[in-house]
Amino acid sequence: MQYDTYLGVRVSPLTYDDILNQVNEMIATNDQATIFAVNPEKIMTARQDDELRHLLNNATFQIPDGVGVLLASKLYNGRVKERVTGVDLSERLLGLANDKGYRVFFYGAKEAVGQKMQARLQERFPNLTIAGYQNGYDDDPDALVDRINESGADMLFVALGSPKQERWINDYRERLNVSVIQGVGGTFDVLAGEVKRAPKITQKLGIEWLYRLLSDPKRWRRQIALPKFLLTLLFNRKQSK
Predict the structure, then answer these.
(1) Which residues pair with 174 in a beta bridge?
(2) By the 8 A CB rule, do 232 and 6 touch?
(3) How far is the C-alpha of 208 from the C-alpha of 70, rounded, in Å?
(4) Of these four, 18, 74, 87, 206, which has the most CB atoms within 10 Å of its CB?
């Protein structure tokens, strides 16, 4: 696969359908795929964190979850043509599991959030087989790995926040018998209805980040990563000319 690379971090220039098609093939052949979201905040952190950069680049799919990555692709005439958000991809993977009979396992978030999420998902996807759930406060990873394997899960969604979830997936992926492992951050809260997504119009316009900032001004420290990322790219581009 050919990748775009921004400040040392790979980004997969694939669409939702591209990823779903490859996931189907991997499940059929018992191969394994890891999926990590890439956004300006992670790229700026990875620029100073060699371990995180290695974890991201070592994944099967680094999805462009952030308008900043799309803008970077336009700036550098890259291959990334559309956003692939972690929330939307996880929902499409769950839809695929519902249609194909794949088994799913969830790990992360608070117990109450996990239970509410499962109830809502069963309403949305009546044929979805939830093989198991474990909240994010488990302190016995060996027993958890055994439980996931015994569940017969095809897909595993890990919601521990970044970079904890990337580290956990990297540490245990070789021992896990699942075909698809996605790090999903706060997605369980969204699927449970605890956190509302930005209106569709802001998502289409690429200003979901602005909606989040206005809804929760305390996020400004995180949101400042976007202008820093774009300015760093512009500076590096000028330096290379």
Answers:
(1) none
(2) no
(3) 13
(4) 87
Cβ(127)–Cβ(99) under 8 Å? yes
227 prior amide bond cis, ω within 30: no
Distance, in Å, from the CA atom of 75 to the CA atom of 94, rounded to the nearest integer, reads 33
What is d(CA 169, CA 51) in angstroms, rounded to the nearest whole number? 13
Give dist(CA 162, CA 112) in Å, integer.
21
DSSP letters spanning 39-81? -HHHHHHHHH-HHHHHHHHTSSEEEE-SHHHHHHHHHTT-S--
Strand 61-64 and strand 129-134: the pairing is unpaired
pTM summary value: 0.90
Residue 36 contacts residue 46 (beta carbons within 8 Å): no
Cα gap 4→80, rounded to integer Å: 7
List pLDDT tens digits, range 99-126.
999 999 999 999 999 999 999 999 999 9
107: its two tokens? 């790990």
- The DSSP letter of residue 104 is E
**DSSP structure string for 157-191:** EEES-TTHHHHHHHHHGGG---SEEEE-TTHHHHH
List, for residues 194-220, the tens digit of each pLDDT value: 987 656 666 565 656 555 555 666 555
Nearest Cα residue to 158 out of 134, 129, 192, 141 = 134
Sign, CA torsion 225/226/227/229: positive
User: Beta-carbon neighbour count of residue 224 at 10 Å?
Assistant: 14
The tokens 């802001």 sit on which residue? 202
